[in-house]
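Q: Could you fold this chain for me?
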Amino acid sequence: MDEIANLARIVTLRRASSPPLLNLDEAKPSKEVQLVNALVKTTGVTQQQLVRELYGSTGSANAVAFRKLRSRVQTKLLNHLFFLDHSDPRHIVTRRYEMQVLGLFHQVSALYAEGEYVLSARLLRKCLRLAEEGEFTWYSLQAARTLRAIYADQGQAASYRAIEKKLAKLQQQLGWEEEVERLNAEVKLLFVSTVASRRANMAKLPAYIKQIEDLHRRARSYNTFFPLYRLRLAQEEAVGNYSEIINITTDAARRLQQGKLNERRFDKRFNNFMSVYAHLRGGQAVRGLKLAEVYARDFHHSSTNWFYFHEHYLLLALHAGQYERAQRILQTVSKNQSYPKQRPAAQQRWELFRAYVEFLQPTPAAPLKARSIAQWALMIPEYNRDKRGHNVAILVLQMLYYLRQRDLDAVLVRMERLRKYQQRHLREAATLRSRLFLRLLALVVEKDFDADECAEKGQNILAKLRAAPQPGEAYAQIEIIPYENLWAITLQLLRNGPRMAARQQA
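A: Sure. Below is the predicted structure, expressed as structure tokens.
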């Protein structure tokens, strides 16, 4: 009982003068809780609106009171960070265990400062054990150092010598891990500039990977494995070797299942995401769609990763030709309460995806959807004009929309915009697929909108398109629908409805 009695005395004597936390379950909410509720329920609320809601008017005295209230609430909200729930498996797994270790170390630091050595040593041994189980080497080192100080203060020679040996091993381990961290940071610096610079620096990547491999063979820790794993994925992604990414992610999943990877550290969600992404970019949409359906439940609906994963889930459905499934995915995304909180660029992408789905899978009673398509068809592309943009996807959708409407002039305008875009922005070898597809579309005008002639004359180009490899992510135009499928859709649109003839109109 002595330990808990000492702990009770420390807490009683050293407690804060005012409650450090908010009672968010109050029957009659205080001003502090009212402010929190107002901030949570309304996005983009202004200070003036909050002052009026909390105090009834926006006078100077109320403004001063609000500033003091805001400061108190912010301090208490920061205190609540010590008590967040990290148990949901849909969040990053490592955070749960890292916070447990940090919490223990925080408690020990306070106890040690108060001279409570017995309880400090017991908690430190637990902290050290948990840190080693999670392979948090830096935290293991800090716990061991504090234990060494306690053993020295208490004159415990045997325990002191044992912890000294452990410290030597941990310091060696940390040295290897820090060198890997440094090399990994250098690689990141190489790839944060322009596309051209990233491509030029690709030649340096194998040497960095070799150095990290050598360090990993010595350390054999998660902290040296994970940077190596990420760099290998990045290397294969940059050259478009998606089959190897599938191999890497499959091997990692197998090693995790076999207990060869630390389950307290390895983020299977990232591994699953990369697997789904590689299936999408590697042309294995049907298999990737099956995986995505299983993996989707691992992502928390409030996270940005949930939306990013569902982008690829939707694209897999579109690439697999399962347009009804794509509609259902879009409905799920639209119902997510966090949808409005996404960045404008992300919402624009979703609207573009929605326009494609509506175009491909029209519903009987959909006048609003028809207007949505028309709005997209009339838009001038607003995305940045780089090699990762959606400009081609937007212009193609516009052209297909007007082709279905049999609006010859509008089709010719979009075809001319595509031609100019190709001349200005699709010169790199990595844009081969886009260039080949635009050559197919050019046949539509050249062959006077005759579907049979277009199909016949486009056979050689289509064969080249099917044989063209997918480029690495850094250089690729986005294919919302595979170009091969878009060409089939184009021919079908030409065959449906009245014949278009540019020459006759001229």
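A (continued): The mean pLDDT is 88.
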